[in-house]
Amino acid sequence: MMILHRSLILILILLVSHPLAFSFDESTRRPVQQRSSPAMSPCGGQIVFSAPGTNKTGDVYCFNLKEESLTRLTSNPEFDGYPSWSHDGQFVYFIGHRQDKSNIFRLSTDTSDLEEITSQKDLIAGKVCPSLDQQNLVYVRRRGQESDMMLFDMKTHAEKILPANGFHPWPIMWLDAERIVYGTFSPMAIREFNLATEADRLIWKPDLKEEGNRHTMVAECTLSPKGDKVAYTVRYDYWYDMLFVEDLESSETRLLLNEGKKMMDISFSPDGEAILLLDEMDNRQEGLITGTISVVDLDAGAVEALVNTETLKVLPRDPFGVDD
Hints:
The chain is mainly beta. A hairpin with a 5-residue loop joins β7 (about 80-85) and β8. The chain has one helix and 27 strands. The chain folds into two domains: about 50-205, Neuraminidase, CATH 2.120.10.30; about 205-324, TolB, C-terminal domain (Neuraminidase), CATH 2.120.10. About 5% of the residues lie in helices and about 50% in strands. It has a five-stranded antiparallel β-sheet, with no helix packed on it. A four-stranded antiparallel β-sheet has the order 3-4-5-6, with no helix packed on it. Strands 7-8-9-10 form a four-stranded antiparallel β-sheet, with no helix packed on it.
């Protein structure tokens, strides 16, 4: 019974900690829980994220690092979230809930024009990953407790399921026009899929051991833009995280951050020299996980707290060289 009880606890914790994990109210098909999901622009000068907005369900905001200013990009009576950038920085993609449907939208950073990309009733979860030329999108479609990694052709609007070697896959980035890097939840791993050959290879998996009676698990992982480093968080006793960075060439692993709290939505800066993350707060507004968006410098280990996503307050900063 103890083994079964521990397994059930682990499953629940994994579902909460997974980068794509959020649930929907089946009666309204609205999200019960979603993440702030901060993402840095290709130039490194702006960060988009979700925060409590209209009806407390979440809108998309943009933080300008140089001007230290906040701009609300969407105002939706339902929810908008999980923003991501196009490779050229001209568009912000996000998941929007409108008329009982969850679909992909694209917002022009130049004209503010808003375009609905998909139109379907299936639930689309997590961040959208546009290809380098924006001809294709990769995202996750939820089917109850199951997830499929989908490829969407922007010209034909054709959609197909991509084979994934693992449970609950999520896209991380495109390496080029044919190769997609994705993560899997069970087992936790980072893999590469080639669209042309349909070859799938393992890039990284954690080598984690139990520490006495303490429970440890890898909660999140991501790959650097150059593909030479992996950042991952290890959750201890279901409660707090430690952030590690592993060099894939040397296999050297070092502890980067240990602040005794949960860290979510980790991603590398475009230059691979810093890590963006969300420090989760204890209180959650209407199911939206809020906290402090911070940037961690890989060399110095210095942490910059940028924005409190609950209060939308810009925090005092000590810049360490983020370009505009």
